[in-house]
Amino acid sequence: MTTTLSPSDAGAVVGEAPLSGVTVIDLSHVYNGPYATFLMALAGAEVIKVEPHTGEHLRSRGDMGGAALPFAMLNSNKKPITLDLKSEQGKEILRKLVKKADILVENFAPGVMERLGLGSAALRQINPRLIYGSSSGYGKDGPYRNYPAMDLVMQAMSGVINSTGHPDHPPVKSGAALCDFFAGIHLYSAIMTALFARERTGRGQTVEVSMQDATYCSLASNYGMLNARGDAAPERTGNRHGGLGVSPYNAYPTKDGYVVVNSPGDRHFNAILDVIGRPELKEDPRLNSRGARVQNFQLVDELLETWTRDRTKNEVADQMLKAGVPCAPVRNLREVMNDENMHARGSLQWVDHPELGRVVLPHTPLNFEGVPRRPLEPSLPLGASNEEVIVGMLGYSKEEFDRLVQQKIV
Amino acid sequence: MTTTLSPSDAGAVVGEAPLSGVTVIDLSHVYNGPYATFLMALAGAEVIKVEPHTGEHLRSRGDMGGAALPFAMLNSNKKPITLDLKSEQGKEILRKLVKKADILVENFAPGVMERLGLGSAALRQINPRLIYGSSSGYGKDGPYRNYPAMDLVMQAMSGVINSTGHPDHPPVKSGAALCDFFAGIHLYSAIMTALFARERTGRGQTVEVSMQDATYCSLASNYGMLNARGDAAPERTGNRHGGLGVSPYNAYPTKDGYVVVNSPGDRHFNAILDVIGRPELKEDPRLNSRGARVQNFQLVDELLETWTRDRTKNEVADQMLKAGVPCAPVRNLREVMNDENMHARGSLQWVDHPELGRVVLPHTPLNFEGVPRRPLEPSLPLGASNEEVIVGMLGYSKEEFDRLVQQKIV
């Protein structure tokens, strides 16, 4: 087990942020790419967020104020600069940045960067150590590559919508923008894998992710049921298991909302029977094995409902959890935002944001033991880091910088 | 830009799989950890899947046959061995494996590995270059760390269920097991980040992810609406935008199912008006700006529905896509499984599986340009790689191996 420090990294210290010293050029917008670069920033990278003069979509779109917090959630600890990538001088500045960068991230539609003359081949010629990471709806090489793609569209195309909802109700999308975020975190994954490989080969590479591919496996239970039952498989199972292979597994009504229970094993089910005061049913052949409970899932659900209906969701969850039964209240977003577990871990933090006031912002879900969390720096206004990057990092004079600003290049 | 090859990696070749030469000990089960190690295997790592003699949960649970395909989806290209980790000899074999490994992955409840004497501190003492990656529902250091956690429970606790469904219907879980898979792909991310850092520090580290943290940001739109509108924010928006900030954005009925349309910009909306034969409405003040359409979203939805209702979902999608409008049919899983785009990209493949017959299996969503896809090797039966690993890799004699098998250590 020899330590293999390369000369340029001789100063690396155990306990230091894992991406310290890594520079990222972030051309991405809305959720997908920005989530990837958010995780890079919180892992210690220097992220330069390059936006058009109108701001990236999420910053500029009004959405009746609803886009403001999402923008703040995903853009902490980044350095925003403006750059007109359609101008020759703007492209020249981007190329200078690329020479100093380790990673470039974009989630434009396929072909946009090539049409600007800034495609991965061109940029990796300038800097062969660059990792060029892109994400799109359908990927850049399949027959659907030019279809426009957004989270709702991808939820429809990937089968998420048709698999969500009650069997007797129309299909409904997942409230979470899972296709966007699955793509973003897979993009982060591909880039980190390539960054590791670069340490061994000395060369960067182009990596690519599609929202469609990134979502597929999350429907594994449902594909399993389709494979096992064929046309007898229901399209949607409400709050029941996606493969209808577990019982109890459902949401149950309480006095003030719902609770969910998911108890695959006999041990869990016996604990439930003790909690609800029906221990005599432990020997009932309709209930005393996993297979029997799955066959008689309606009986199981009625049994639980009869008991949950007269209690509050937190009372039910407390009693079940004390008995070791996987159970939880169906919480609303205000409850989640104030979750004591996440605040204790530091993955949620109250922050005084200069534009939004006191808000809850996420820190990274990636925890590196012994590495302290990087302090959250609230997202900055459009172009706030222009001078720091153009003058400080690229070495333009103050006069040149002023001229570039005046010409709306920067 | 100098090439910084370290001595032990001098043989690394551009175009080679990025994780070739990396060895992974996989103690994980069901979806979360196995998805992370599936991506490692497909990126070229050697993944040794360690299971108890009963098989990991997903392999052993019947689920009326519904668990068979999910197991096959996530366990391609892995080497399964059996090991009794409660026996001293079984622990000793695991320690020998750890000495040869780069990465260990587990998603037991917090504390399980420590109670076996195989916690991250103990294992990293044996091999300081080891990356020890773990994933759990709530993380290992917060007040909820001992709560049992599964996907349904985490969807309830994280606000996904309460945010999913039609406003006038009860809340419903997402059909996709997003909490499990978000955790799995974040775990992969954390491990790759640490693997990169190891190249610079020479030391491994312990990384950790929770399902709860990994899901939070995917509800960004919904948090945005709550922040902007406070108690006036609806808990669920059906198929409308989670922030109610975009229109048209909905699922619309057709003759044979639904289509979705998501068109934030004026350009898209004008294209829709041309497609549906109502170009005169381009000047209508109720419709001619993004803000106006959001205010009059019911009018917008009626306008589209009137036109979609008399057509099939594929007819509607074809016409909209030709006009550049983000639109898609709500597809069922059979349609998705046969998606021509994913099959063309190789991210879905037809495979003759020895146990399941001809099935569709996913390849990795992580694409490394210039690196050919590793051929998919179907998942193997329990313990299929016992001899290869115990004799071939660890150097036990055939006689010792037979004895270990006889004693049910292996």
Question: Could you describe the 3D structure shown?
Answer:
The structure is a homodimer of 410-residue chains. Chain A is an alpha/beta fold. The first copy, chain A, has 2 domains: 18-217 and 345-406, Rossmann fold (3-Layer(aba) Sandwich), CATH 3.40.50.10540; 245-330, 2-Layer Sandwich (formyl-coa transferase, domain 3). Helix content of chain A is 39%, strand content 14%. The first copy, chain A, is built from 18 helices and 12 strands. Chain A has helices at 32-42, 57-60, 68-74, 88-100, 112-115, 120-126, 151-157, 178-201, 211-216, 220-229, 266-275, 290-295, 297-308, 313-322, 333-337, 340-345, 386-393, 398-406, and strands spanning 23-26, 46-51, 78-82, 103-106, 131-136, 206-210, 249-254, 257-262, 327-329, 348-353, 357-362, 367-368. In chain A, the strands form 3 sheets. In chain A, strands 3-2-1-4-5-6 form a 6-stranded parallel sheet, with helices on both faces. Chain A has a 3-stranded antiparallel sheet with strand order 7-8-9, covered by helices on one side. A two-stranded antiparallel ribbon of chain A has the order 10-11. In chain A, a hairpin with a 2-residue loop joins β7 and β8. Chain A is elongated, with a radius of gyration of 26 Å. Mean pLDDT of chain A is 94; it is low at 1-12. Chains A and B meet through α3, α7, α8, β6 and α9 of A and α3, α7, α8, β6 and α9 of B. β6 of chain A pairs antiparallel with β12 (367-368) of chain B, so a sheet runs across the interface.
